[in-house]
Amino acid sequence: MRLVTFRDPHSSVRVGRLDGEGDDARVVELAAPTMLDWLRGDGHEPAGRDHALADVRLLAPIPEPPSVRDFFAYEGHVATGARLRGSSEIPEAWYEAPVFYFSNPASIQGPREPVRRPAHCEWLDFELEIAAVIGEDAEIAGYTLLNDWSARDIQRREMTVGLGPAKGKDFATSIGPWLVTPDELPIEDGRLQLKATASLGDREITSSDAGAMHWSWPQLAAHAAKETRLKPGDVLGSGTLNRGCLLELNADGGIDGEVRWLAPGDTVTISAPGLGSLSAPIV
């Protein structure tokens, strides 16, 4: 099942089930007032109305999650980060338990919502990620695309203090376009078997194997729940897929030999089969 939060033709925010593909796709309204209610187990039945997908505006599936944890689950990305910090080795602790930071649930953005480049940022970056969303009984209820935008120059400076990231990250996190229940996706050994891509404008600039996680989704969820509790709607990001950001691409020579960062006028789209496409213009 694909689940969406959307604004209907009367500008009311609703929860729905997306049926069909392409021009025939329709959004069936569900009784749940919000996606958090649906994730708690309420309002799964249809409300009796449906709309053509073209007649509604998709919002972030969970516009106000209780929390957002972003992990660091892809070894290739971790290795590049270590190399750029002057180390030839990944920290030993990374292999002992999955590491995450808390992101900002107040800065969630949906499909096609513009991302504003922070003041004094010159090194704006995207991050190609997948997120799991928690439902009842702390189980994973579904998956969605996640773009963890990064102000790399601000992030690099503030993390010299030994704490963070903070303002280098919390200005925007895009998720969407829909939430997909696990039964709709190819999963082996707790990992999604998908090829994910990122495009700049109309050009694909990278692709990555979502199944190449060192830590599986059940391991991420179990670690997040350790000595605390997960709530329906909590978002768990995978961390950047290998070669899933400009930081890594620039470290390998850039795009067609050009080292570059995002600027106003750029549009970034991340995509994966079943999970759809999540686009955002930079302003």
List keywords for this structure.
mainly beta; globular; 283 residues; single chain; four-stranded antiparallel beta sheet; twelve-stranded mixed beta sheet
Topology record:
Blueprint: E1 2-7, E2 13-19, E3 26-30, H1 35-39, E4 46-52, E5 57-58, E6 68-71, H2 75-84, E7 100-102, E8 108-109, E9 124-125, E10 128-134, E11 140-148, E12 150-151, H3 152-158, E13 173-180, E14 187-188, E15 191-192, E16 195-200, E17 203-209, H4 217-225, E18 235-237, H5 246-251, E19 267-272, E20 276-281
Parallel strand pairs: 6-18, 8-13
Antiparallel strand pairs: 1-2, 1-5, 1-13, 2-3, 3-4, 6-7, 9-12, 10-11, 10-18, 11-13, 14-15, 16-17, 16-19, 19-20
* Helix and strand run: EEEHEEEHEEEEEEHEEEEEHEHEE
Query: What is the end-to-end distance?
Result: 33 Å
Number of strands: 20
The share of residues in helices is 10-25%
Percent strand:
25-35%
Number of helices: 5
Gyration radius, to the nearest Å?
18 Å
Determine the structural class based on helices, strands and strand pairing: mainly beta
Main beta-sheet annotation? 12 strands, mixed
Average pLDDT for all residues: 96
Low-confidence stretches: none
Q: Could you say which overall geometry the principal axes of the C-alpha atoms support?
A: globular
